[in-house]
Amino acid sequence: MNRKELRKKIFQMLKDHYRLIIYNDSTIQTVFSIKLTPIKVATLGSLGAILLILLTSVIIAYTPLRENIPGYPDEKVRLQIIRNYLLVDSLENEIKTRDAYFEKIRTLFAGEVLPDESQITDAGVKTQEVKFKSFNADSVFQDKLQEEKQNLSISNSQKRLPSIANIHFFTPLRGMITNKFNTKTEHLAVDVVGKLNARISSVLNGTVIFAGWTMETGYSIYIQHENNIISAYKHNAELLKDVGDKVKAGEVIAIMGNSGELTTGPHLHFELWHNGTALDPETYIDF
């Protein structure tokens, strides 16, 4: 049989008509009868397969049966995936915040001015004239700051300096002075004891240049003011400001505490510096 005869035979089979009959075996009566052709059978079979695939897809997509499919995550796994995504996103934000903090510290040690992230100019502070000075923070940065220590001088005079004589300083903490400014003992500050959980305020308008924990002075905060004045507040229980924040005179910046290895009890260790010179705070501030 050649190819031509084979094609003709197949074409004839497709055109042939067949009848599907279902008989009752007991009565030999016809129960169901349908006339079919191979083409009609193929068409009906294809439609049935498509409908079966669609029905299976709907069941898998919109019913809990999909969780029984091997490899498909159940509800707990999906929730864990979402939690992991949120944790990774939070970790990325924390890393960015940490990198920004270290960059600010590097900027301070380089003697540069911190950029104004808020783009809001404080009328009380001329930021373009502020010059940051390195100082001994009694912290983990002490090694880097040690070489600057020799440049700091001590004001032995109890008279007001003419350059800042007319500046009104806000009292950082109302209380009793337990340890005065003393150059002989190298206590270049005053220790003030106030009420429990007393609020500590900034003495002038300024910008926070350090706010963090040190082993010796605990929670400490340093503020750069106009006219190259720096004020330091140490041994706090809690800090309410971050590096780069702008503060007003009298604005609360911390809570009095007893943190750090050098503390002798709950008090404020307050330092005042001008052009690298330690000043006696009692000369300028009434505690």
Describe the structure.
It is a single chain. By secondary structure, this protein is α+β, with helices and mostly antiparallel strands. It folds into 2 domains: 3-68, no CATH class; 127-284, Glucose Permease (Domain IIA) (Distorted Sandwich), CATH 2.70.70.10. The chain is 29% helix and 25% strand. The protein contains 5 helices and 13 strands. It has helices at residues 3-15, 38-62, 75-109, 142-146, 281-284, and strands at 18-23, 30-36, 153-154, 176-179, 190-193, 199-201, 206-214, 218-225, 229-239, 246-247, 252-256, 268-274, 277-279. The strands form 2 sheets. Strands 3, 4, 5, 6, 7, 8, 9, 10, 11, 12 and 13 form an 11-stranded mixed beta sheet that branches. Strands 1-2 form a two-stranded antiparallel sheet. A hairpin with a 2-residue loop joins β12 and β13 (277-279). The protein is rod-shaped and about 125 Å long.
